[in-house]
Amino acid sequence: MLLADDQTLLRQTFRLLIDSCADMEVVGEAADGAEAVGLARAHRPDIVLMDIRMPGTDGLAATEAICGDPGLRATRVLVLTTFQTDQHVARALRAGASGFLGKDVSADALLDGIRTVAASDALLSPTATRALIARFLAAPDPDAAPALPADLASLTAREREVTALAAQGRSDREIAGELSVSPLTVRTHLQRAKTKLGARDRAQLVALAYRTGLVRP
């Protein structure tokens, strides 16, 4: 884990919590985005816990730099923000973040979220997907770079169907029930779609689904 937050007390609190877990270790702390990028390249952490609002280089720019670095493809960014009220969350997801948590998150939820992202799953609950991602990701963003080309034609009809349902905020179990298949089959289709479209995780697959017009709010 790499911690990136300009509040020293908050970083120390997170470090104590994370280091108390046998399966986690903090390898560095950054007080701004530029430092976070440098430490990420030096330590290649599995997860970067990234605050959005920091002086100098903010968390959005740092997220984009980390997720856009081919040498850090295995590193995932988990964003800390003011949960479903912050439009910057959508920009962070566009930049490559794998999920987000509110700063008022409980200790257990924080640790669960870290483990979720570390397992290559996106920390995007169905509620969050419907309430935030559909609202902001599909909206025009004059500051955003054009959407990366995604060869949707490479997906099978079922892969497109499963991807669209996931982007609408359905859980694997809900998709499985609607399509009369097993949750494992759903996960297999999603994994194949991620591979074909070059999406590092479910969060990026959802972002591509909206940005390419496969799904509209």
Number of strands: 5
* Lateral arrangement of strands in the main beta sheet: 2-1-3-4-5
Per DSSP, the total helix count is 10
Largest sheet entry: 5 strands, parallel
Which architecture name of the largest domain does CATH use? 3-Layer(aba) Sandwich
Query: pLDDT below 50 for ≥5 consecutive residues: which ranges?
Result: none
Helix content: 40-55%
The CATH homologous superfamily of the largest domain corresponds to Response regulator
End-to-end span in angstroms?
A: 35 Å
Principal-axis shape: globular
Which helices and strands occur, and which strands form pairs?
Blueprint: E1 2-4, H1 8-19, E2 28-30, H2 33-43, E3 47-51, H3 59-67, E4 76-81, H4 88-95, E5 99-102, H5 107-118, H6 126-136, H7 157-167, H8 172-179, H9 183-197, H10 202-211
Parallel strand pairs: 1-2, 1-3, 3-4, 4-5
Helix pairs in contact: 2-3, 3-4, 7-9, 7-10, 8-9, 9-10
